[in-house]
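A further point concerns the way the authors explain their paired sequence and structure data. Showing the layout once, in full, would remove most of the difficulty. For illustration, here is how one protein appears when written out as sequence plus structure tokens:
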Amino acid sequence: MTEDWQGYVRRIEELAARSGLKFHPVDFEAVPDSFMMEIAVYGLPVRMPHWSFGVRYIYQLIQRHMGHSRLFEVVFPGNPGHAYLAQSNGLAENVLVTAHVLGHADFSRNNLLFRRCQEQVSERIVEHAASHARQISAAIEAHGAQRVEVALDAALALEQHIDVDQSLRRGRYPEYAADHKAPADDAFRKRFAALESAAGGTAPEARKRAPVPPHPERDLLWFVANYAPEMESWERDIFLAVREESFYFYPVFATQIMNEGWASYWHARLLREADFIPQQAYVDAIKCHSDVVRPIAADSQVSLSINPYHLGFSMWEKIIATDGLEAARGIMEQDDDFAFVRNHLTRELAEELGLFRYSARSDGKITVLEPDLGALHEAVLAPKYNFGAPIVSAAHVRNDGTLELTHDSGTDGRGLDLERSAKVLAYLQRVWRRPVVLTTVNQAGSALELNAP
């Protein structure tokens, strides 16, 4: 069955290219289901070792045994891209997945956010991450597993706390504060300034050191790597490696609805046009497509978990039917999920799909409250703000080295999980090696301070 599927890959690629898809080459590989699970959990085929990935693996294993999830493919954008398909897939599933992957490859090559992040990190992320893993292994040999685990605990606890608006390879802050003396802007002031500088016996003013940080800093991985008082070079390398991988993963997170919808639109379209696929395989693939893009709803139709495949697929179909494929490609290239949902999830489509204003629950269920389109947009997008993490910034480093963090609860609109926050602070304090203080608010809105130690 695998041989049959591989025989169709080239023909599907040729059909995709004729249909206007522009993608880097993709290496397809069928792998055992257990390896698929590992790839999905680690996020990459080879990645730095850490106990937290084992916890995620157990969770995914339980979900699969309960019938809640099945992995058909895992795809990694790049040049070349890498797609891993489950060996348990049948011919129909692999034909569909091949077309789906090519939709992803077109998206990641042409979407501006993907291109920007890949240009900064690497277009060969699989090899790049393997290099990071070797770097971690070398650190374990040199410094011991326990010390390396301490650094990884802290870095991975902060992996969402990056600032993609800044460059990946940004420089340190200026050492001295800028001179804000007003420039001489007329002839008299210029002559006076010249006399002042020419007068002898006046000691030069001492330059004032800039505060650290000079402004609230959201990129905590970068900040700790550069300003932790006693961080060793190998620890800094671990923080920067985690930060690089976070830059790679951010576009996947920030365009999930668009990206999965685009890939689903194209796998459906390519299947319809692939007259070389056997009839039974085509019918089975279409059934698989229906499973992928169906809305996930309770029997009562009162609560709905947003399926990004379903929502994105429906939105792209509507856009292409209304404005044409060229306009859709322009949106695909320019937008992320925030712009996509706010600009293109219309009231008409929301009503057609049965989408209204939702109340999100911790278990992922979203309950209908009222048909308010703006509120619907924000409910769908709320989990995506700030890479899904609370907005926490480095605000100040005291003279004794104490690090002050602040939680922007007003902008964030989300509270902190205090138990998890205490654990993260403890991890951070072990690499900062000075006290760490986090200011947030409690449920009543009053100021609350968390300390480590």
About this structure: The chain is about 55% helix and 10% strand.
